[in-house]
Structures are given as C-alpha cells and as structure tokens.
C-alpha cells in the first residue's frame, strides 16, 4: 500500500529530514569530514526506515511531485543566475583549458559507465546513471535526470540508483582528492608542507585582512552575509521569470531538434537573465540571496526525493553498480594524475586543481573546495585553483554535462 503526501505534509516531512540530517552531521565525525550534505544524511536514514517498513508491513510513501519539481527547478535557476560571464576574463586561458579537461572527462566517464553496464548485461543507461549524471552532476542532477529516465526511458529505480551513486561519489571524491594531490606534490617536489602553527597563523592573518570584506575568497574562513527583504523579493521575481521561461521553452521546443528537459531550460534562462540584466541594463545582481534560495531549494528537493526512495528496487543491481563505481573511482584518479595535472602545467597549482577535479568529478563543488582547502592549508595558497574550480564547478560543468547527456540519450 502506498501513501501519497500532499504539498503541506511533504514540506513538513522534508524539514524533519533536514533537521535529522543536521543533527547527524553535527554529531558524526565521518559525515562532517567528508562533507556529506544534511539532506543526504537525513534522507538516507529515512529511506532505510522506509525500506524496513516496506519489507515488514508492505507500506511505502511518495511525496508531492509538483512541490518537489518546483524546488528542483529553483535550484537550477540559481545555478544559471550565478553565471556571470564577465568572470570568464578573470579565469583566463587556464579556465578554458580546465574546462576542456572537464568536458573530456565527462565523455570518458560516460564511456566507462555505459561500456561496463553493457558488459555486465544490464541496461546501458544504468551505466550513464553511474556516470556523469550522478558523479559529475551530483545529487541535484541525479534527481532531475532520474525522473526523466524513469518516466521516458523506463529505467525502474533510476532515482534510487542516482542517489546511491551520487552519495558514493561524494564520499569517494573527498577521499581520493587530497591524497592524490599530496602524492603529486611530494613526487615532483612542488611545495614544502607547513606546520599546524604556521597554517593557523596564516589563516588568522588572512581572516583579519578580509574581516570587513563583503565577499571572501574560498581559501579563507566563511563569513556571514546578510540579505534584506527587498533583495529577497527581487530574487524571487528572477526565479519566477526563469521558471516561466523554462515552461514556455519546454512546450515550444517539444518535438524539435533543440528539445531539452525543463531543468536545462531553467538553467539557461538564469544565464540569459543574469547577463542581460548586468550587461545591458547595468542592474546589480545580489548573489547572496541567490545562493541562499538556491541552497535551501536544493536541500528541500533532496530531502523530498530521498523520502520517497524505494531501495528495494536496487537489490538486483547492487553488484553491477559496485563494479561500475569502483571502475569510475580508478578512472577519476588516473585522469586527474595523468591528464588534469599535466595539462594544467604540472606545477603546484596543477596539483591543487587535480584535487579539485576529483572533488566535483566524483561529487560536488563543495567537495572540490574542501579537497583544495586540505592541500592549501598544508602547503600554502593557490589563488589560481580557487578561482578556476568554483567558476567551473558551480556552473559551466553542469551546462557541459547536460549537453553531453542529452546527446547520448538521443543515441538511445
């Protein structure tokens, strides 16, 4: 028997899951160390409880799909609205080269996933799920494509597979990035490690220098940033415009060569709106409000998606999934060491960039940043890496990934 939560109960349940996740992350060192998101921590507990209830009593639940989809679209709109093309000049040639590395790896990642799925005798699209959809894309992309693969391509349990793969990638991306960069730095003698006292002294000095700054570089400690009601209202209006644009373009492009999923149009709408407002009308965009609403929407969406996970659908695919994800881990490490590191200059910055690529190539941008922080805390700052990786991981990688995935799906 299945119970369907309406929008109100879905929201209440999602908030409870988030509070549970926050409690777990704050009290379990493993979750905190590997940057496991609160909705993932709480949502997986909820999914396991749901599995137990289903196996013993035959009950399951589903959440409000309309509310869940709305939060997902708001999250992708926030990615688009954060894409300031003027920042491309700051990244320079290094950003372009790194983007080529990332785009190439997305193709490699999907080739590995699809090839292994075919060899293991399962649907090749499951290899795509255990490829760039979840590993480079993360939980948000996993949820978005999971729904499409279930409804349009008949892949039962695609959402559950996606969440499991994305969680694995998030953990493993945080495990392999730091040690790999350390190995490269020591092997090629690129930098000398700092003592704990030296690192703490440097961080304190940098924090003092940036204490009054509105925006603080990722290398430095986080600083609380305030938003106002006016900014919040303006930002909500931009989100509404992105969603309206996406709804129109989804209907307009249906059946044409440029047909794309709604969430991709939402992201594209955000990019267009942001850069037209800034470049043409000289409107100042309030990034802090975009970040707040985007992160809140992602957390609520993930909590809702994980609440309705049906883990019992994964039983037959557990073995092949482990094989594919293991191969993806090895592929990521080898690619970062022999391609990313060498192409980016084979120097200290390149080693830090390799650690960052492991982070969002297997997990997410926060994991990439955490990897780089672990290295720079020990060996010193890398301003080039902390400029390029957030720019690439926060937006461009999602656009490249969506394009590659869409192309592959058309082949099937």
Automatic annotation (TrEMBL):
<dbReference type="Pfam" id="PF03616">
    <property type="entry name" value="Glt_symporter"/>
</dbReference>
<feature type="transmembrane region" description="Helical">
    <location>
        <begin position="385"/>
        <end position="409"/>
    </location>
</feature>
<feature type="transmembrane region" description="Helical">
    <location>
        <begin position="158"/>
        <end position="181"/>
    </location>
</feature>
<comment type="function">
    <text>Catalyzes the sodium-dependent transport of glutamate.</text>
</comment>
<keyword id="KW-0997">Cell inner membrane</keyword>
<protein>
    <recommendedName>
        <fullName>Sodium/glutamate symporter</fullName>
    </recommendedName>
</protein>
<keyword id="KW-0769">Symport</keyword>
<feature type="transmembrane region" description="Helical">
    <location>
        <begin position="125"/>
        <end position="146"/>
    </location>
</feature>
<keyword id="KW-0029">Amino-acid transport</keyword>
<keyword id="KW-0406">Ion transport</keyword>
<feature type="transmembrane region" description="Helical">
    <location>
        <begin position="350"/>
        <end position="373"/>
    </location>
</feature>
<dbReference type="GO" id="GO:0015501">
    <property type="term" value="F:glutamate:sodium symporter activity"/>
</dbReference>
<dbReference type="GO" id="GO:0005886">
    <property type="term" value="C:plasma membrane"/>
</dbReference>
<keyword id="KW-0472">Membrane</keyword>
<feature type="transmembrane region" description="Helical">
    <location>
        <begin position="289"/>
        <end position="312"/>
    </location>
</feature>
<feature type="transmembrane region" description="Helical">
    <location>
        <begin position="257"/>
        <end position="277"/>
    </location>
</feature>
<feature type="transmembrane region" description="Helical">
    <location>
        <begin position="65"/>
        <end position="86"/>
    </location>
</feature>
<dbReference type="GO" id="GO:0015813">
    <property type="term" value="P:L-glutamate transmembrane transport"/>
</dbReference>
<feature type="transmembrane region" description="Helical">
    <location>
        <begin position="6"/>
        <end position="28"/>
    </location>
</feature>
<keyword id="KW-0739">Sodium transport</keyword>
<keyword id="KW-1133">Transmembrane helix</keyword>
<feature type="transmembrane region" description="Helical">
    <location>
        <begin position="40"/>
        <end position="59"/>
    </location>
</feature>
<keyword id="KW-0915">Sodium</keyword>
<comment type="similarity">
    <text>Belongs to the glutamate:Na(+) symporter (ESS) (TC 2.A.27) family.</text>
</comment>
<dbReference type="InterPro" id="IPR004445">
    <property type="entry name" value="GltS"/>
</dbReference>
<keyword id="KW-1003">Cell membrane</keyword>
<feature type="transmembrane region" description="Helical">
    <location>
        <begin position="93"/>
        <end position="119"/>
    </location>
</feature>
<keyword id="KW-0813">Transport</keyword>
<keyword id="KW-0812">Transmembrane</keyword>
<feature type="transmembrane region" description="Helical">
    <location>
        <begin position="318"/>
        <end position="338"/>
    </location>
</feature>
């Amino acid at each position: 028997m299945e119970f369907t939560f309406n929008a109100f109960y879905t929201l209440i349940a999602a908030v409870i899951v988030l509070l549970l996740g926050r409690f777990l992350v704050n009290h379990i060192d493993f979750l905190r160390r590997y940057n496991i998101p609160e909705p993932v921590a709480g949502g997986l507990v909820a999914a396991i409880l749901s599995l137990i209830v289903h196996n013993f009593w035959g009950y399951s639940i589903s959440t409000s799909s309309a509310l869940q989809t709305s939060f997902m679209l708001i999250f992708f709109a926030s990615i688009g609205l954060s894409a300031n093309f003027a920042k491309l000049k700051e990244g320079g040639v290094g950003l372009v080269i790194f983007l080529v590395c990332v785009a190439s790896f997305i193709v490699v990642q999907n080739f590995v996933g699809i090839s292994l799925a075919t060899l293991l005798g399962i649907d090749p699209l499951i290899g795509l799920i255990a490829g760039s959809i979840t590993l480079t894309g993360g939980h948000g992309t996993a949820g978005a494509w999971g729904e499409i693969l279930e409804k349009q391509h008949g892949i039962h349990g695609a959402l559950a597979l996606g969440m499991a793969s994305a969680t694995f990638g998030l953990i493993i991306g945080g495990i392999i990035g730091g040690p790999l960069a350390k190995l490269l730095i020591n092997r090629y003698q690129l930098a000398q490690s700092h003592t704990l006292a030296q690192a703490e002294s440097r961080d304190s000095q940098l924090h003092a220098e940036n204490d009054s700054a509105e925006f603080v570089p990722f290398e430095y400690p986080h600083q609380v940033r305030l938003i106002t009601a006016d900014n919040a209202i303006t930002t909500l209006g931009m989100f509404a415009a992105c969603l309206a644009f996406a709804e129109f373009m989804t209907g307009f492009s249906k059946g044409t060569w440029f047909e794309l999923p709604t969430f991709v149009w939402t992201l594209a709408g955000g990019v267009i709106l942001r850069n037209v407002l800034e470049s043409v009308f000289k409107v100042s965009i309030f990034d802090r409000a975009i970040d707040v609403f985007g992160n809140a929407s992602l957390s609520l969406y993930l909590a809702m998606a994980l609440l309705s996970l049906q883990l019992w659908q994964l039983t037959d695919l557990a073995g092949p999934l482990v094989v594919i994800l293991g191969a993806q881990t090895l592929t990521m490490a080898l690619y970062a060491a022999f391609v990313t590191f060498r192409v980016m200059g084979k120097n200290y910055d390149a080693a830090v960039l390799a650690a960052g690529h492991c982070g969002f190539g297997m997990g997410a941008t926060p994991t990439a940043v955490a990897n780089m922080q672990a290295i720079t805390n020990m060996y010193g700052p890398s301003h080039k890496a902390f400029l390029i990786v957030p720019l690439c991981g926060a937006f461009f990688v999602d656009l490249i990934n969506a394009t590659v995935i869409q192309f592959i799906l058309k082949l099937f």
